[in-house]
Amino acid sequence: MEKTILLVEDNPDDEELTLHAMAMHNLANQIVVARDGVEALDYLFGTGRFTGRNPNDLPTVVLLDINLPKLNGIEVLKRIRSEQLTQLLPVVLLTSSNEEEDRLKSYSLGANSYVRKPVDFEEFIKVAGQLGLYWILINQPAV
Q1: What is the extent of the structural domain holding 82?
Q2: Roughly how many angstroms between the first and final C-alpha of the chain, as a whole number?
Q3: Where is the Response regulatory domain positioned along the sequence (predicted)?
Q4: Does the residue 16 lie in any domain?
Q5: Considering its fold, how many domains does the chain have in total?
Q6: What is the domain-level CATH number for residue 125?
Q7: What is the dihedral of CA 44, 48, 54, 60, to 10 degrees?
Q8: For residue 31, what are the β-bridge partners?
Q9: Residue pair 27/59 in contact by the 8 Å Cβ criterion
Q10: Which of 31, 34, 118, 140 could form a disulfide with 39 if both were Cys (CB 3.0 to 4.6 A apart)?
Q11: Confidence (pLDDT) at 119
């Protein structure tokens, strides 16, 4: 089974930078992009525009922004952790939020990691690439 990353990102610039970083590490063909919280859940559970997709074919990791339209990242994380199918799915909050409340809430809800998006272009590319490599090649998933 091919390993995939679900990138949940509504900012087109951050999406492009993340995809670029993953491409530099030969991970670009393994990324599915959801642009809001509802679309992310539809992908994970095979509903909405993803009706017919096998929900048992989970991504290796979810890179989740907090500030999303329709349903924010905290609510998406709650739903992921509330379902038996996805409760062990690795979720990394990749966000521009520097709010301590967001970080603490994310960890209390079961986030595996909380990474602040660097503002600097080169640093962003480096961080996003390292995240992809770690979760795809190094981490040993629970399921």
Answers
A1: 5-136
A2: 13
A3: 4-132
A4: yes
A5: 1
A6: 3.40.50.2300
A7: -20
A8: 5
A9: no
A10: 34
A11: 84
In terms of Cα–Cα distance, which of 49, 59, 69 is closest to 9?
69
Q: What pTM, to 2 d.p., does this model score?
A: 0.92
141 lies in a domain?
no
| Distance from C-alpha of 90 to C-alpha of 51, rounded to nearest angstrom | 23
Q: Is residue 125 part of a domain?
A: yes
Q: What is the pLDDT of residues 52-106, one digit of tens each?
A: 999 999 999 999 999 999 999 999 999 999 999 999 999 999 888 888 999 999 9
Q: Are 92 and 64 in contact (CB under 8 A)?
A: yes
Buried b (16+ CB within 10 A) or exposed e, 85-104: ebeebbbbbbbebeeeebbe
Give, as one character, the DSSP assignment of residue 33.
E
Residue spans of alpha helices (H) in the chain: 12-24, 37-45, 73-82, 100-108, 121-133
Instruction: Dig out the tokens for 122 from the structure.
Output: 């080169």
Q: Return the pLDDT at 88.
A: 96
What is the Cα–Cα distance from 44 to 125, expressed in whole angstroms?
A: 26
